Amino acid sequence: MRETLDALGHPFELMDCDPSLADTDVFCDHYGVDPWDSANTILVASKSGPEQRFAACVLLSTTKLDVNKVVRKRLGVRRISFASAEQTEALTGMIIGGVTPIALPPSLPIWVDQRVMQREAIVLGGGDRHTKLKLAPSLFSRLEQAEIVEGLAIER
Q1: Number of domains composing the chain
Q2: Which is nearest to 98 in space by CA: 154, 27, 13?
Q3: How far is the C-alpha of 56 from the C-alpha of 77, rounded, in Å?
């Protein structure tokens, strides 16, 4: 992941994190990060069709994914769910609580809620539960499979 960021030439800060404090709400509270500047990467998976389809969705921690409308329609499937911990690890090599959109397989689409792009900087998973990344969301314009999606998430 660090090699990918270095190759993209995009500034970032690595933040150490106690793995037991990696879950978003606890992390923000303990480390003093504004939840509006915290982003989550969530994998979704189709539940029907001949071939299972996946997408990585990036959204602010103050919002929730619009799974049944926007995400399902974008994925082009009738039924959808969150990817299991096993599916997430198999696809990304990362465990839930540390998933980062950086260095995901090129075939995996990355959909970024437009609210993320409005932040000066965001903190997101660093690829494991003991690292977080702080960076400007302009990074997503440098990732080929990333697409900014209006309405991907809704306010909680």
Answers
A1: 1
A2: 27
A3: 15
Q: Model pTM?
A: 0.95
Interval 107-130: pLDDT, tens: 999 999 999 999 999 999 999 999
Buried-state track 30-60, b at ≥16 Cβ within 10 A, e below 16: eeebebebbbbbbbbbbeeeeeebbbbbbbb
More confident residue, 109 or 50: 109
Structural domain including 80 reads 2-155
Give the residue, 49 or 135, on which the prediction is more confident. 135
Q: Which CATH number goes with the domain that contains 139? A: 3.90.960.10
pLDDT, tens digit, 9 for 90 and up, residues 12-41? 999 999 999 999 999 999 999 999 999 999
CB 58 within 8 A of CB 111: yes
